[in-house]
Design goal:
Elements (H helix, E strand, L loop, with lengths): L6 H8 L3 H8 L7 H13 L6 H8 L4 E6 L5 H16 L3 E6 L4 H11 L7 E3 L3 H6 L3 H8 L4 E4 L9 E5 L1 H14 L5 E5 L5 H16 L9 E3 L7 H10 L4 E4 L2 H13 L9 E5 L3 H5 L5 E4 L2 H16 L12 E4 L2 E3 L12
Parallel strand pairs: 1-2, 1-3, 3-4, 4-5, 5-11, 6-7, 6-8, 8-9, 9-10
Antiparallel strand pairs: 10-12
Helix pairs in contact: 1-2, 2-3, 5-14, 9-10
Length: about 350
């Protein structure tokens, strides 16, 4: 049984660019007869069949960009979208938005719908189910056929592509460091399942900070909650039994909800318990007290992602394919009333 082959495989084997392979398969006059013969012979040997959907996408410029986000509840994703749209419009591109609703199936469907020639490339954050199932075939196919895309925030090491994100581990480390400098000893982490790339990084930063500053890592102080549901009974029991004096949450929904819950129990924030959450959104600004937040600068992240994608789109015919890049957006801690004193910039 012959191996399924792609343009990228042929290019790698023959040590030529993907665009050279594509042109050789079309008998382009730009390519030498010797190269055309080698490419076509290799393609025939391995029974190469072109992806008509991908060819349709690459054969004409639409000046449209597809954006796929996991949900519209989290303020962060809407700010990223605004950044994408702002930069793209300045460059003459329109933006088409889709929501995967944290579903792998919907993520794949959205990509298929957009990849019918209606967009020139994609910007996306992976859905929860995509990361949970570790299923990236749809991304591999898009990449192997030379369709440009950029992953932001929720990314994976399994796929080589352009990416833009914050250093989640460093950000969480500095949040915990602030608690420790404020004299806190029983620092809790409220997080999601660790198949989320961002949650995994933030937990690593939490553990690193405790170890660095000589505090024990107590697994009982780590509460994992389903991203779809806040179990009040589980949260209530967690706060009742561990003598917690500071809490870092992987998103602002968890942080604001838990802060409200402990205040209803008579806990004074920040005097008796401090809180820091990720994403400086509307909930953080209008919570009582205001929530100290690790700002992810979604608007800037969106602009950077759009810049990276448009650069790829406008340079797809270059003979030498540029290496993929990962851009790190600097996070900042926005100090509000849920913590005591100071402001730190990463």
């Amino acid at each position: 049984m012959k191996t399924k082959i792609t343009l990228k495989h042929i290019a790698r084997e023959l040590e030529v660019s993907i665009s050279t392979v594509s042109k050789a398969l079309k008998n382009s006059s730009e390519i030498s007869a010797d190269t055309i013969e080698k490419v076509q012979a290799f393609a025939k040997l391995y029974n190469y069949r072109p992806n008509n959907l991908a060819i349709s996408l690459k054969s004409r410029r639409t000046n449209n960009i597809g954006v796929i986000i996991p949900d519209i509840v989290h303020y962060f994703f809407t700010t990223v979208f605004r950044g994408i749209e702002h930069y793209s419009k300045e460059r003459g591109y329109n933006v088409i938005a889709c929501v995967s609703d944290e579903s792998l199936e919907k993520e794949v469907i959205n990509m298929e719908l957009l990849a019918n020639g209606s967009v020139d490339g994609f910007i996306m954050a992976l859905s929860a189910e995509t990361q949970k199932k570790n299923h990236f075939d749809h991304l591999s196919q898009v990449r192997d056929y030379g369709i440009p895309f950029v992953l932001f925030d929720r990314v994976t090491d399994e796929i080589e592509c352009d990416k833009v994100l914050i250093n989640d581990q460093e950000a969480a480390f500095l949040a915990v460091k602030k608690f420790i400098e404020n004299g806190r000893k029983k620092i809790a982490l409220i997080t999601t399942e660790d198949y989320f790339s961002v949650s995994k990084g933030r937990e690593a930063g939490y553990r690193q900070a405790l170890e660095t500053f000589g505090l024990p890592v107590d697994e009982k102080l780590i509460l994992r909650l389903p991203f779809t549901d806040l179990d009040n009974g589980k949260v209530d029991e967690f706060f009742n039994t561990h003598g917690i004096d500071a809490v870092i949450c992987v998103n602002e929904i968890f942080a604001v909800h838990c802060m409200n819950l402990v205040q209803q129990k008579g806990v004074k924030v920040p005097e008796e318990m401090e809180f820091i959450g990720f994403t400086d959104g509307i909930l953080s600004k209008y919570a009582k007290p205001g929530l100290t937040s690790m700002a992810q600068h979604g608007f800037q992240m969106g602009q950077v992602a759009a810049k990276m994608l448009i650069h790829r789109i406008e340079n797809t015919q270059d003979e030498e394919e540029e290496p993929y890049r990962t851009e790190i957006i600097k996070s900042t801690i926005i100090e509000r009333e849920s913590t005591i004193n100071g402001i730190t910039v990463l």
